[in-house]
Amino acid sequence: MAPCRAGRLTSHLQRLHVRDLIRCCFIADRVLNPLSARIFRFDDWTLNLQSGELERGGVRARLQEHPVQVLAALLENAGQVVTREQLISRLWPSTVVDFDTGLNTAVRKLRAALGDTADTPRYIETLPRKGYRFMGTVLEGDSSAGAQPVAVETVA
Hints:
156 residues, alpha+beta, 6-stranded antiparallel β-sheet, 4 helices
């Protein structure tokens, strides 16, 4: 009877090992590729970070990489100020470009996609010479699981 138990134990440990490997691969993918399979929902908008698609009412628009990165940073820090410096280091980590013009262009394209304006913002508030803040309630989830609310205070 002892060999049988040992065999079951070995089999059980092998299954655990495989599950742990799968779990580690999933976690590593999230760390190495943080945009993979992440979905944000706010109001009736859905943003798929992997594809860069912004959807509302069944209409999809594919955003360019920089507006997606700006929106992701704002959604990840909803209700908090995201400084221009933080956005610049996220968009251009080691290159030399005209940061101000590039960042302003990315925010302008993002606002156009959301139907938002700087004068009467609904989603993206500008804090002059500081940065931007996402205003609203954000849900984060993936396509295989229900959305998880992100703790956010709506800023008026």
